[in-house]
Amino acid sequence: MIRAGCLIMAKKRDEYLSLRRLYEPDSIKLIIIAESPPASGCYFYDPKGDVTEPLFTALMKQLNLSPDTKESGLRAFQRRGWVLADATYEPVNALNDSERDKAIVRDYPLLCSDLERLISDHLTPLILIKANVCRVLEPKLVDDGFNVINRDHVIYFPSTGRQIDFHRQFGAVLKAVEELLDKGPPGKHDRVH
Fold first, then answer.
1. Can you say whether the dihedral through the CA atoms of 86, 76, 157, 122 is positive or negative?
2. How far apart are CA 108 and CA 88, in angstroms?
3. pLDDT tens digits for 148-190?
4. What is the reported pLDDT for 179?
5. DSSP tag of 107
6. Cα–Cα distances in Å, from 138 out to 15, 22, 57, 168?
7. Which of 52, 55, 44 is nearest to 129 (CA)?
8. Dihedral over Cα of 98, 100, 106, 109: its sign
9. What domains are defined for the chain?
10. Crossing angle of helices 131-143 and 108-118, rounded to 10°
11. pLDDT digits (tens, 9 = 90+) for 20-46
């Protein structure tokens, strides 16, 4: 069954990560952490998906792009040095808030393992998106020494009327990241807060 260009079938974690690995940059400059792939079967890194998927559209707009295909947009995302990781690869958007948070907490060790594989140090900037991801993961990631750029600043997910909020919030945080990257690698005590 197809809905909005997405196959309605959840993949396994390894399948999601295999798709993402095709588009991981050699040098990662930014990691964006979202909640999970949606239950619809759409996935940011699925090149067969639709360019109108909310998160894909929003992140392409942050890159000032309007790609004709997901493949071309994903390649641009890769060239920019950006990676999107999910807090959990269990689609949780159909769950209640408590169940979503439990899945994120349960899979936190997997997220840390994923981040350790992606980056050699904890200085690479991380941006958290979606209110519950910010609330649940920020203290854990900061305590574990990761460089969460949008500390204490929620970035809403770009759908259900929050697109303008997302662009304003993400844009402000991205500006701080770009200023940080222009200065070169931060020292241990030079993290952006």
1. positive
2. 8
3. 999 989 999 999 889 999 999 999 999 988 877 676 654 443 4
4. 78
5. T
6. 26, 27, 25, 20
7. 55
8. negative
9. 2-181 (3.40.470.10)
10. 70
11. 999 999 999 999 999 999 988 899 999
